Write the structure tokens for this entry.
Amino acid sequence: SGKTALITGASRGIGAAAARHLAASGATVFLTARTQEAVEPVAEAITADGGIAHALACDVSRFADVEAAVRAALAETGRLDILVNNAGLIDPISRLETSDPDAWGKVADVNIKGVYHGLRAAGPVMLEQKSGTIINLSSGAASRPIEGWSHYCASKAAVLSLTRSADLEWRREGIRVLGLSPGTVATGMQASIRASGINDYSRLAPTAHLDPDWVGQAIAWLCGKAGDAYLGEDCSLKDPVVRKA
Ligand code: NJP
């Protein structure tokens, strides 16, 4: 494709799968996670398969890290076509009354602020290019409560809301911002959910889960569609509050 893609949380799970499929489609991929060591093997495997992959350390809860990752991609390829705001966590799962306020805030820092940081760092670059696709990983948990997941449900609802705001402001400038809610995917996150034993999700058999590779494929497919093939929740047309022309 000749495109440049930045994927957060690409050391495993959905992010790693998305990076593999984006690289297979011809994109130069920048894989990020909190440490370079965690993400390096995934990048090396992509390179061994003939792709172009770079591994970077980037804690999405720190804006300076996200900005630096965007700058690194720009320095190498001169552009940024795709951002997958994928990094996220659910631990520690806990009922509200026993939840740890610091841990609750950490989930908000990664799941909500991390996505905002990605939008804030990539947005100006894509606006300048007048093109780009951003995919934010939300969840079905955005629209319903799940016992023990108050932090996660709230954060994923915020991701959808951020997606709507960015899409409203940027779609006319040629940038698509999509939210993806894939369902129950067989990754390390599901292992945490099973270990918590707190609700029905923890009893779902691993065979009832989606393969993260399929979700990665879906992400690459969405990114490959032309700008007019907009897929996603078309909320911005319902009752938009737009800036004055
Ligand atoms: O998660 P997992 P998934 N800064 O645990 C990274 C959503 N989702 O693939 O730093 C930067 O395998 C971490 O890297 P490391 C979900 O909410 C999932 O299942 O090395 N990166 C790792 O690469 C999330 O938004 C399901 O620990 C940070 C990655 O994030 C996304 O999909 C269903 C970080 C997590 O890998 C990927 O989830 C659904 C930080 N501060 C939505 N903290 C599902 N699995 O069922 C963590 O609807 N990471």
User: Anything to note?
Assistant: The pocket of NJP is lined by residues 8-15, 33-34, 38, 58-61, 86-89, 110, 137, 139-140, 181-185, 187-190, 212 (CB under 6 Å).
